[in-house]
TrEMBL record:
Homology family: Belongs to the polyphosphate kinase 1 (PPK1) family.
Binding-site list for Mg(2+): 383, 413
Catalytic site positions: 443
Higher taxonomy: Bacteria, Pseudomonadati, Bacteroidota, Cytophagia, Cytophagales
Name listed for the protein in its UniProt record: Polyphosphate kinase
GO cellular component: polyphosphate kinase complex
PTM characteristics: An intermediate of this reaction is the autophosphorylated ppk in which a phosphate is covalently linked to a histidine residue through a N-P bond.
Length: 700
């Protein structure tokens, strides 16, 4: 096992700051909201994604920076970068992006909505008839969920819930002599209780109208504060530290610790208080006095916060304003098989989500749960759907007497509650539930089915780059392997043995497992390319991942570039490697694709003097993946699967529509036709469906 020696020390290795690289990624998301070739309602969703991403960034990364800043000076000096300097750069970039975000919304989204006869009205733009309708709607559907609280002159504490929008209301012109001339009040905008952030007003001919729930409340403030005659209302929202401080030991109840930490998350210290920049200082002073939030946490926003609520923006039944449908494709081979287990005896199969149906893995687990010959089932659950069919199949298998082992990662950030729920269900059903590991987060996506066939135990395995999650499988681009290859299934069995005995002496024939042998093997594969390059042989690597941050791997890639190895990198998110530096990284090109689906697969291709080796993995090249998580990379051994993955990667490398280079620009290529890889991949996989077979899944 690799030992964790991650004391950060000053380095001369050229690196892009991780936090700024992440912000560059989120800016690429904002580009999609700006792009008028993207359907209007989809651009609104990208606004929501940008906002949701930034919320998490503040709750996790900025909160971490603030903790580092509070460290003692001697401890901070051990860090490779001054967290205070990084924090200042982060806040400057966030401010720039927030300003552009507001511009995109005001001058892009709102203008284009009006051109489509959709009007997002404010409280000051209502006709007389709409005023009456809004007042009635408020009285019947909104007011019962609102509890205004007056902030008096004492230091009474008022707790602002995480990720919740509040209105700070300034009250003027009292109607009674005994009332104060002005007061401050706070009220929570009841988004969840109301059923969403938006209120659709009656249409008028072809004209469609919608309002923020915030503005409905603003218009109806006289009903909430009848003793005052004039009001100003400004929105605020707090994002709280979401890092869980957990002693990751198995002794005691880890589940109880997670549950306790989840409760603390809601009351964690604030990472930022987002406020409307026109909010009077007196209002901010009152809020800070009554919440305990300091001026250091104040961050300028806009009139409206929580743009992630735009995921629920009404579509007005206008399909032309959304992406054209891409019906989920059938797998050309698995679709005609009655038994997936029987099919897996014959050959390997690979499914490509979200283009192809996720139903095959659901079928596999359900078939195994019902099969009397199946004696055991094992799975790693990292992020499962709330109503997970796979978890239900595992519960059924356990209840029927099969030996079921499930590794549930309780530290899957923001999915802990769902995982706790299913861990409890599985335990009650009699499954052997392993609640993560001390010091290691279980991130690998594995399944193992053991079957008694004529007295012999035969294994079948499912390995994937993505989670067992029916919901995210529709938007995350992943690869999944169905195999009965003995070497691979025995290796998968070894991984599950590791979860049980915690012994790090495991030997693997085919799989790479972090933290045991993955890093070392990837280094060996890079060194082989370097050796071939120094001998004058062709040397090349194509590496696709979500994030590239590990300094040791980046140094190794720099060394390969200096030796003449051609390196193509497809990195969706964080990339700390600096490409194109003469004499260092001029043989490295880095591209990022942000489009309709979230690129989530990890694929590592090594030229190997013409005998290419392919690995597909759950792991990025981040230190946490290679050193502090259980991850698996599996080889592709079957010719047709290799051809499929290579075709998909080649399409992504030639994308000249949605690919960006490292400084966020669209990639311009001299090409007779534009390539939009996600659409080209869909058409390619559609072409594999034989004539006479319906390529689309009607039920999906």
């Amino acid at each position: 096992m690799e030992t964790n020696t991650e004391d950060k020390k000053p380095t001369l290795t050229p690196l892009i700051n991780r936090e700024l690289s992440w912000l560059a990624f989120n800016y690429r998301v904002l580009q999609e909201a700006k792009d008028r070739t993207v359907p209007l309602l989809e651009r609104i969703k990208f606004m929501a994604i940008f906002s949701s991403n930034l919320d998490e960034y503040f709750k996790v990364r900025v909160a971490t920076l603030k903790r580092l800043i509070k460290l003692k000076k001697k401890t901070r000096e051990k860090l490779s970068e001054d967290p205070a300097d990084t924090f200042e750069q982060v806040m400057q970039e966030v401010k720039r992006q927030q300003e552009e975000f507001g511009e995109v919304f005001r001058e892009g989204i709102l203008v284009d909505l009006r051109q489509q006869d959709i009007h997002l009205l404010t409280e000051n733009e209502l006709s007389e008839a709409q005023q009456q309708w809004v007042q009635t709607y408020f009285t019947e559907h909104v007011q019962p969920h609102i509890l205004p609280l007056l902030l008096d002159d004492t230091e009474t504490h008022f707790f602002l819930k995480d990720q919740t929008v509040y209105l700070g209301v300034h009250l003027f012109e009292p109607k009674k002599q005994n009332l104060k001339p002005e007061r401050f009040s706070m009220l929570e905008i009841p988004t969840k209780k109301h059923g969403g952030r938006f209120v659709k007003l009656p249409t008028e001919g072809e004209q469609r109208y919608v309002m923020f729930l915030d503005d409905v409340i603003r218009f109806c403030l006289p009903a909430l504060y009848p003793d005052y005659g004039r009001f100003e209302a400004h929105a605020v929202k707090v994002s709280r530290d979401a890092e869980l401080d957990i002693e990751e030991e198995v002794s005691g109840s880890l589940m109880a610790k997670i549950q306790k930490s989840l409760k603390k998350r809601e009351t964690g210290y604030p990472a930022r208080l987002l406020y409307d920049p026109v909010t009077p200082q007196a209002m901010l002073d009152a809020i800070m006095a009554h919440t305990g939030i300091s001026e250091d946490e104040l961050v300028e926003g806009s009139k409206y916060h929580n743009f992630r609520d735009f995921f629920g923006f009404p579509d007005f039944n206008l399909p032309d304003l959304k992406y054209s449908p891409q019906p989920t494709l059938v797998h050309p081979l698995l679709e005609k098989e009655e038994s997936l287990i029987e099919a897996m005896k014959k050959q390997d199969y690979m499914a490509h989500y979200p283009y192809q149906s996720f139903d095959y893995v659901l079928r596999l687990f359900e078939e195994a749960a019902n099969d009397p010959k199946v004696t055991a089932m094992s799975a790693t659950l990292y992020r499962v759907a709330d109503d997970s069919a796979i978890a239900k199949s595992l519960v059924k298998a356990a209840k029927s007497g099969k030996l079921v082992t499930v590794v549930v990662e309780l530290k899957a950030r923001f999915d802990e509650e769902s995982n706790i729920f299913w861990a409890g269900k599985l335990q009650k059903a009699g499954a052997n539930v392993i609640l993560g590991l001390p010091d290691l987060k279980v991130h690998t996506k594995l399944g193992l089915i053991t079957r008694n066939e004529d007295g012999q135990l035969v294994n079948y395995a499912y390995l994937s780059t993505g989670n067992y999650n029916e919901d995210t499988s529709r938007i995350y681009a992943d690869h999944a392997l169905f195999t009965s290859n003995k070497d691979i299934t025995q290796d998968v069995e070894q991984v599950f043995n590791f979860f049980i005995d915690r012994q790090h002496d495991k030997k693997f024939k085919k799989l790479l497992m972090a933290p045991i042998n993955m890093r070392d093997r990837f280094v060996e594969l890079i060194n082989r390319e370097i050796k071939n390059a120094t001998k004058g042989k062709p040397a090349k690597m194509i590496l696709k991942m979500n994030a590239l941050q590990d300094e040791r791997m980046i140094k190794k890639l720099y060394a390969a570039s200096q030796a003449g190895v051609k390196i193509e990198l497809l990195v969706r998110g964080i990339c700390c490697l600096v490409p194109g530096v003469e004499g260092l990284s001029d043989n490295i090109r880095v591209r990022s694709i942000v489009d309709r689906y979230l690129e989530h697969a990890r694929v590592y291709i090594f030229h190997n003097d013409g005998k290419e080796e392919y690995y597909v993995a759950s792991a990025d090249w981040m230190t946490r993946n290679l050193s502090r998580r259980v991850e698996v990379a599996f080889p592709l051994l079957q010719k047709d699967i290799i051809e499929q993955v290579r075709t998909i990667i080649d399409l992504q490398l030639t994308d000249d529509t949605k690919a960006r280079d490292i400084d966020n620009n669209y990639v311009e290529q001299v090409s007779p036709t534009h390539v939009r890889s996600q659409y080209a991949i869909y058409e390619y996989l559609r072409s594999l469906v034989p004539e006479g077979m319906d390529p689309a899944r009607k039920s999906e």
